[in-house]
Amino acid sequence: MRELYILDLIFTKRKFYISIDILIFMINVNKKNAFVRSPTLDTVLMIEKTIEKYSGEFNKTEIWKKLPKQVMWQTYLIALDYLQSINKIAIDNKGIVGHIWSPDIAKKFYKRKPVKI
Predict the structure, then answer these.
(1) CATH 1.10.10 corresponds to the domain 41-104
(2) Which of 71, 79, 100, 111 falls 20 to 30 Å from 37 in CA-CA distance?
């Protein structure tokens, strides 16, 4: 797999900087499952809205069944991982999914003065 990434970089004639840990993660994901599907933005937003609607009520499987449109399970799990990595959702020990994003706190965070060192 590494050879393919190197060849892509040579043919583009542009410098790309990829963190080693991200590259290793991408290679490992492709080795685990060759049929991994990436969700579209519309799919991620649909999943996020459904989780926001049923926040704290259902687990992953029950929310998956309540989605307005059908989504493949693998795609759904990738979207959940993404939403969890950007701190928009949280999953407790029992598997209950909760929406934790707060736009008001985010606005306050972005309006604060930068820290000078």
Answers:
(1) yes
(2) 100
Q: Which residues contact 37 (CB under 8 A, 6 or more apart)?
A: 72, 74, 75, 78
Strands (E) across the chain are located at: 89-91, 97-99
Paired residues of 59 in beta bridges: 96
The interaxial angle of helices 41-53 and 73-85, nearest 10 deg, is: 70
pLDDT tens for 77-117 read 999 999 998 889 998 888 899 999 887 877 777 777 777 77
Quick check: 67 and 46 in contact, CB under 8 A? Answer: yes
Instruction: Report if pTM > 0.70.
Output: no
Give residue limits of the domains in the chain: 2-32, 41-104
